[in-house]
Amino acid sequence: MEGMEGIAIALAACVVVALICRRYAIPPIPFYIITGLLLGTAGLGIVGTSEISEWIAHMGLLFLLFTMGLHLHPGEVAKRRGSFLIAGTIDLVINFAAGFAVALIIGLPFYDAVVLAGAFYISSSAIALSSLIDNRKLGFRESDTVIWMMVFEDIMLVALLILFTAQDVSPFRIIGIIICVAAAAFACVWKFQSRLWQFFAREDELPILAVFLAVVLAVAVSELTGVPDSLFVIILGSAVSLAAADRAEVVVRPFREVFLVIFFVFFGISVSLSGVPSLVILTSVIVLALISKLFSGLVIGKAIHGRIYSGIDIWADTASRGEFSILLALLYGSSAVVPIVAVMVVVTSCVGSFTGKYSTHIRRWCGHIATGK
Amino acid sequence: MGFFHQVLPGIGTKYELETESGDLISVIFMPNGRVQLYTQPARCPDCYAADLNPMESRRLGNVLTGAIMEAEEEGVEIAFSALADLRIVVHTYIIRDQLSGKSITDLDIRSRTGVTILAVSRDGKNTVNPRPDFRFMSGDAVVVIGESDQIRTFEQEFME
Fold first, then answer.
1. Residue A242 falls within a domain, yes or no?
2. More confident residue, B78 or A139
3. ipTM score here?
4. B113/chain A closest Cα distance in angstroms
5. Phi, psi at A204, each rounded to 5°
6. Can you give the CATH number for the domain in which A117 is found?
7. Residue A69 CA to chain centroid, in angstroms?
């Protein structure tokens, strides 16, 4: 079934999934994808993608990136010093390199290998942050490190998006346009900072309309310039964060929640497992994805907190891959990469939700083993 | 000592206080109005946490400032240490049947007790600084301000 009936069936299934996930306090993202896999091409084949579902999923992606932009407050990021860069760089170097190596070993071409490396590297901010809040871990120093690692990964995602776009459009043109748009957006927000703050504090429909307009406008400008809309919405979000980050996030939330669920479930629906490599290869990719994050976590724990066990906490919340991995695979990956990323996201985020919940137990358990008790 | 504060992108704002005894207290404000409170005793690897809604965090704040004198009633005492230790009590009461229909002037509240009616809440609508001819209705919630002796007189005169 395509069109509206398909969306209705998929969304209804997601409501049930969300209900169950909330009941047992587990992150719903992997289960939306599993629902999609079951309903779609890879499973029963009940629901297919349509133009409408693709449009809604695309809006979900843009609202996700707009929210990500809201977290990239330039002043706050610039204030971060050594530990932010050290943790971020260790995370990037170890996991990107590991992902790239894995991709080459399983025989992906160079371009797909970069996509898989990106998907392998970027953890799910959504799962990490909600794990920190829901499992009451914000008091730990390691949590600050995790939160800022997510910001570093967001910045690297922007770099990757620019890199991939440079395939089609000349990099100078992209960077030129991006600098112009960013300068205009930041200058406007800076100039009307207090008015914008008042505007977002309004209780009526205007802030909601304005945010929706901003995102649609980004799509329109993208069609004119050839620079991806994903980059424009991140810039817009980051600019708005100067004036009213908290309030804007509250306004965007309903859009993001609804559209993003469609994004996840229809990602699952669109995945075809026909091009998937053998189970052995798939399992080793997933195991490596978990191990490389554990290794980078341990190195970061030792480097930033002076204790290797801190690394277990860091790993526990960053092991999940999620929305950004899917984004990279969908936008830039070939049909060989997409199913690998789909399975990797589902498995790592299920494992990650478990490790996030029991990280203190895992750390204590490792401590006991190390001391021989 | 002193608070250390930082923004946590995607989460909210975190305030951290290390006490003299080395215990660590963190307070995280989230955009949805909820607050998470953590305490980490010195030399103890575990954190203890509580998740508070806006009302609970305000109440906790009142308790910590020492403002609440009687925890079971809805009252707050504010001390202005700079003004010769001036102490002002703000208290809420529910108007009962016997005062229904009477105005502030009828009851002569100010001259009989010394307190001022600061605000009245009726059916979810608030009237701040009600006029002297304002008539109470049964079930109104009133906010009264005065010194603790005056508040006590008000209770004896009108609330018993």
1. yes
2. A139
3. 0.77
4. 41
5. -80, -165
6. 1.20.1530.20
7. 12
